[in-house]
Amino acid sequence: MNIVVCCKQVPDPEAPPASFKIDAAANKVAPAPGVNQVISPFDEQAIEAALRIKDGQESTVRVISMGTDLVSDVVKKPLAMGADELYLIQDEALNDGDGISTAYALATAIKKIGEYDLIICGRQAADWDVGQTGVGIAEELGIACVTVAKKVEVVDGKVRVERVVADGYEVVEVPLPAVVTVSNELGEPRYATLKGIMGAAKKQATVMSAADIGADTAKTGKAGAKSKLLKLYIPVREGKCEMIEAEDPAEAGALLAQKLREAKVL
Amino acid sequence: MGEIGILTVSECTDGALDAISAELLGAARKLADELGQKVATVIIGSGVGDAGKDAVAYGADEVYVADDAKYANYQPEAYAAVVQQAAKDLSPAIILAGQTSIGRDLAPRVAFKLQTGLSTDCISLKLDAGRMIMSRAVYGGNAMADYVSESDPQMATVRVKSQEALAKDDSRSGDVKTIAADADIKTAFIEKVTEEVTGIKLEDADVVVCGGRGIGSEEGFEPLNELAKMLHGAVGATRPPCDNGWIASTQQIGLTGKIVSPTLYFGIALSGASQHIAGCSGAKNIVAINKDDEANIFNVAHYGVVGDYKKILPALIAKVKELG
Ligand SMILES: Cc1cc2nc3c(=O)[nH]c(=O)nc-3n(C[C@H](O)[C@H](O)[C@H](O)COP(=O)(O)OP(=O)(O)OC[C@H]3O[C@@H](n4cnc5c(N)ncnc54)[C@H](O)[C@@H]3O)c2cc1C
Ligand SMILES: Nc1ncnc2c1ncn2[C@@H]1O[C@H](COP(=O)(O)O)[C@@H](O)[C@H]1O
């Protein structure tokens, strides 16, 4: 099995909300001191999904990360977890894309780097929360796509997926090649082992530009985007919390009930 | 009134229109009235019953129904083909779908086929010089972003409960027609497994008691269950309790879980991460119980108690009982 996993580097989405800052004039997120770059969490689950398949059958797991500010230790984590090869697609012309132009660039890169049977993405990247790229890659390549997976198995040349829906899950099957996007219900991604980390340190990533992957830069990044960002801003919240103070927790609990009753919300 | 300005994608369950579909029609009606154009909706399903008439009552001028056994379960290629057909027939300026299990999968497929821009999970839609400004939360809700589409049709998926439905008016008139489209089917549906918990549905509950990682275990949810039961509410959770199997994952509230907007929401032993708040910020009254007085939840709560929930909840429950 040739498996490709798309991993995006993002600022840690679990950082405290107060640490989040923007540069309103530039319509950009301002780098915040102390906020690390990480692999977008659903993409780590995408790696986990790929490695579970590799655990069961002979597979090659190739990882693609696209961006110009990639931190080596961050993007190498999938290798330390057990992925085989890493491709870094770095070009200003690929930055600031929307669903369409990002999917075009990634699909072009995927075609360039070799044979593919299964492409795994996160359900949405934890920076812009777009949630379109997986479907877009599939449309671009003319193959099937199943979104929001909690289980991904390859059986008899098909991929069988449990996809999360509001009141449970659906089991669906698509022929390979296919794209699957995964959700946190898949379960915890495995830790990198010491051996994995040492192995990853020795591995070289293949770095490619827009020209290397053969992308038409009129269709990539900001130039190829159909959605235009007009304004980025921090929502205002009128934080007015009435704190219930009491001698001890039990008293506070009782007082809370009383307050809610007085306010007629209980 | 002119041509079709806006096409919405309706969803229905057992022959009744889903709440999000009425919300979409409410939003579409407002935009269309401003543009002096009509609203159409497409309904795909099997046994859609009166959903078509209901769509008219909620604001649609034209309804296109694809009612067939093959649409009984969500079939992505078949559903996308119908919406694409409607887009071709009607040339709407705008297409809206819900940010639901179906909509978040379907809308990108349609957008890519039409090679047009799509803004997902929008919470506000406005017109500016004839173009739609779509506001959506980004970075998990830490920031908001306004987008405009530079291609047509302009497409958005809309967050559940973010738009107001019109009052149902059965005297409204509109045409209900059928629509059909062939599709290249790739996805085979095998089965659906329902994991719905018993009792009041989380998204319909007027009181939601939500527990976070600090609850610590499945047993830890017992007082939360008791409080919810007493108040005829439902129990929800942040992501960690779902990931840990302390509660069904269908009870997750947030950006990638359920959106709730109850009158009263208890956030217990949860920090108030933006991705969680995205799912409950519509609550009228937010009560926070957390042992860390600096937890972010206190920035969005209306009432707060600092302390251990294990000590606070029993006293709260006893007092609620006493007050009757
Ligand atoms: C793309 C993306 C999507 C996401 N979607 C969602 C989503 O839909 N829903 C969601 O919930 N999360 C979501 N998350 C995860 C989210 O970022 C947070 O990790 C999560 O909400 C944290 O849950 P928590 O507040 O329960 O846990 P924590 O942040 O660990 O907070 C636990 C809190 O409990 C308090 N506590 C501990 N013990 C006690 C006690 N005995 N009494 C009182 N207080 C106590 C602590 O002080 C702490 O504040 C998403 C993340 C990403 C990146
Ligand atoms: N720049 C990128 N590099 C690698 N993968 C990406 C990139 N952008 C998006 N993806 C993949 O597409 C998924 C969905 O992204 P999005 O549509 O932006 O929410 C992510 O979880 C990744 O798997």
Structure description:
The complex is a heterodimer of chains A (266) and B (324). Chain A has 266 residues and is of the alpha/beta class. Chain A has nine helices and 15 strands. Chain A is 30% helix and 30% strand. Chain B has 324 residues and is of the alpha/beta class. Helix content of chain B is 26%, strand content 30%. Chain B has helices spanning 19-35, 51-57, 76-90, 103-114, 222-230, 239-243, 274-277, 309-323, and strands spanning 4-10, 12-13, 16-17, 38-45, 62-67, 94-98, 118-128, 131-138, 143-149, 154-158, 175-178, 188-194, 207-211, 234-237, 264-268, 285-290, 303-306. The model of chain B has no long low-confidence stretch (mean pLDDT 97). Adenosine monophosphate (AMP) binds at residues 6-8, 40, 42-43, 46, 64-67, 99, 102, 106, 121-122, 124-125, 128, 130-134 of chain A.
Report the portion of residues of chain A in β strands.
Answer: 25-35%
The radius of gyration over CA of chain A amounts to: 22 Å
Number of strands of chain A: 15
Major beta sheet, strand line-up of chain B:
9-8-7-10-6-1-4-5-11
**Shape designation of chain A:** globular
Overall mean confidence score, pLDDT of chain B: 97
What is the CATH C-level name of the largest domain in chain A? Alpha Beta
The CATH architecture of the largest domain in chain B: 3-Layer(aba) Sandwich
Give the chain pair forming the largest contact, with residue counts: A-B, 86 and 89 residues
Q: Might you state the CATH topology name of the largest domain in chain A?
A: Rossmann fold
- Gyration radius from CA atoms of chain B, angstroms: 21 Å
CATH fold name of the largest domain in chain B: Rossmann fold
Q: Which residue ranges of chain B are poorly predicted, with pLDDT under 50 across at least 5 consecutive positions?
A: none
Any idea how many domains of chain A? 2
Q: Quick one: CATH superfamily of the largest domain in chain A?
A: HUPs
